[in-house]
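Standup, Tuesday
Yesterday: got the pipeline producing structure tokens again.
Today: sanity-check two examples.
Blockers: none.

Example 1:
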Amino acid sequence: MLNRFEGNAGRGPRVEAIARQRIAYRNLALAEEIADVIELRAVPAGTVMIEQADTDADFFLIFEGEFNIVVDGAVVAKRGAGEHVGEIAAIQPALKRTATVVAKSDAVVGRLTEAVFTDVGNRYPTVYKAIAQQLAGRLIQQNKPAG
């Protein structure tokens, strides 16, 4: 799975996968820039990629696979290809991680450090707008009455 996105041969698929992410909003220049700085990782099923209450602030784009989002031991959401995780810590690095992220299947992600994420976001404000829109959608969904 990972080799599909690696090296010069994998640059096209890598750019394409990033351009499909909400944060890139089909901005090819942004996707190409991220493709040059992102660190690819294979994540085997069952691996804890982010641990609730940790203090790291990396941001991850999901290229392939699925993840469970776990808060206080309960699965509260799922994320998959085309989505991201770690945005709260990347935007607010003084905060501890708000959830644990566990690979539900074998996966491929791209990691951006908080510093790289901030640099990209400062030069492409649509990154922050896309994250704000997604967080607002999650908040609205969470506040809907059950039933």
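Example 2:
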Amino acid sequence: MDCTLLRSRIPEVPIVTPTRKYQRGFSMIELMIGLVVFGILVGMSVPTFQHYSSSQQLRGSAENLVQTIQLQRSRAMATGNDVVINFNTAAPAAWTVMSGPRSSRTDLPNGVTYASANPTSLTLKRDGRVNTSGTVVFKNRTGDSATVSVQLSGLALYR
């Protein structure tokens, strides 16, 4: 039998490539659902992060003041010169350390202000004591507060 005859009787079948069993990647719908879920999570976490950031600025301000008082107390005892710390309660809120001819100003972070500063000036004596005891209260935009108390002995505490 002739091979050409046989070939002419067999219908040609289009060649179909087999599809992969497991396709890699994400479909557009899966990608959009993932982005929506991510957006919702970020949207819910932003207010929490803002409150956390605000409370950390408040705490950092109080701790910074305690450390400043402790450092300046040590400086007063080491140099034998009194050191004065003024609390500038008017805007922009800050405290100023004056020791001899030098002075340095530390501004409070944005959103942190003085609720009260009694007295508005502390003198750290060369014997390590303070001229008067006092309290400084900081507050932030959310109404949280942090208190620094200074005892006559010169000990500064954050509460």
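Quick observation on example 2: The mean pLDDT is 88. The two ends are 106 Å apart (CA to CA).
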